[in-house]
Design a protein that fits this description.
It holds the Pfam family Peptidase_M14. The protein is an alpha/beta fold. The protein is built from 9 helices and 17 strands.
Length: 384
């Protein structure tokens, strides 16, 4: 599809009721109910705390695609894009061919307890993405049952990643990352993985037109306890989507658009192509993610470490905290050392001036600061 067409569809059909980072079941229930005329909707299971897990089926085609989001409750960007996608598929007749050729089964929020509490883990403090083999949790069993019953030809494993990732060894964030998970401990490039790689290559080609150099490849170390590795090992081409950071987009609203573009590009390709895996090679050229970013770096800061006055760089990471049903970003000092090989999404040059914490004291690793004081001036570290 032409990129301009996809961007126009996003602007026209974006689900405006979903915004920012906190997305829980109560936010999506009215949306799935409003789509009842276009989708098959059912409760496919219950969470640890008895929250409903919804399944949405749309389309009547023979190519079956299983998508699940918020397996980690605090990774909501892909969920927002799921509802943008559902709006487009249900309202725009130009995409009828996708629904004629494909059937999508979507779990918008697999971990509703984690979504409600804004945590990665479920209510039993289990990471569902490490429970693919033991299936100890009700949410894990729900996904496995859907996989068994639906028998997908493709799986889309939808996640979000932290702001620390760069797209290779450069000063560009990994705004979107993909992975064709390994299906054996040797990470062999199997025919099954090649199919996933080919689809990722198509999405990457589209994204490079609008975020050049900002697409990364996630680590493919094999772990059979991970859902993507398990499904790949069972010969179902599986793609990991990771929604990452875009400049000044802590709400992940621009990233949401890029994920939407990826959805439509992949669905268009699957609809119109017999994906064989022959065109997988460009996937291998996508740079691997590295952890080279801080949210803020204060360069050339004078401070005290163990009573000794030194000039260092101060690396700050934002802690995401749910406060009054909204995600707030709290700056926390992570490192005080030479950070020449790292980048900041925002950089402040202290010019060897004394840098104090918000109380006028010395900086310390692990401390949270809304602002710092540089040369007697208060510098706000994050503004809403």
């Amino acid at each position: 599809m032409q990129l301009e067409v996809i961007q126009s569809l996003f602007s026209k059909h974006k689900e405006t009721s979903l915004y920012h980072r906190y997305i829980a079941t109560k936010h999506i229930e009215p949306l799935v109910n409003n789509l009842k005329d276009f989708i098959e909707l059912k409760i496919i299971g219950k969470s640890v705390l008895n929250e409903s897990i919804y399944g949405v089926k749309i389309g009547k085609g023979h190519k079956r695609i299983l998508m699940w989001s918020q397996m980690h409750g605090n990774e909501s960007t892909t969920t927002k894009a799921v509802f943008d996608l559902l709006n487009v598929l249900s309202r725009d007749s130009s995409l009828k061919y996708v629904l004629d050729r494909c059937t999508l089964f979507i779990i918008p929020i697999l971990n509703p307890d984690g979504a409600k509490a804004y945590t990665r883990i479920n209510a039993n403090e289990v990471d569902l993405n490490r429970d693919a083999q033991n299936l100890t949790q009700p949410e894990s069993k729900v996904l496995r049952q859907v996989f068994n019953d639906f028998m997908p030809h493709f799986c889309f494993n939808l996640h979000g990643q932290r702001t620390i990732f760069s797209a290779g060894n450069i000063d560009k964030p990994a705004t979107i990352s993909f992975l064709a998970p390994a299906q054996d401990k040797y990470c062999n490039i199997t025919p099954n993985r090649k199919i996933a790689m080919e689809i990722i290559s198509v999405m990457n080609n589209a994204l490079q037109q609008i975020i050049p150099g900002q697409v990364g490849k996630y680590d493919d170390a094999f772990n059979l306890n991970c859902v993507g590795d398990t499904f790949q090992s069972e010969n179902v081409p599986t793609i990991l989507f990771e929604a990452g950071h875009y400049s000044n987009d802590y709400e992940r609203e621009k990233t949401r658009e890029f994920i939407f573009i990826s959805y439509l590009e992949s669905l268009n390709y699957i609809s119109n192509t017999d994906v064989t895996g022959e065109d997988y090679q460009s996937y291998l050229k996508i740079p691997e993610n590295e952890k080279l970013f801080y949210d803020i770096i204060i360069r050339n800061a004078k401070t005290k470490i163990n009573t000794e006055e030194v000039i260092v760089d101060v690396g700050i990471l934002f802690q995401e905290k749910l406060i009054d049903k909204k995600v707030e970003f709290i700056p926390k000092i992570d490192k005080m050392e030479d950070l020449d090989s790292f980048y900041g999404h925002k950089e402040i040059n202290a010019n060897r001036n004394l840098v104090l914490n918000e109380n006028g004291g010395d900086l310390s690793i692990g401390s949270e600061n809304v602002f710092v004081i540089i040369n007697n001036e208060k510098i706000l570290l994050f503004s809403k």
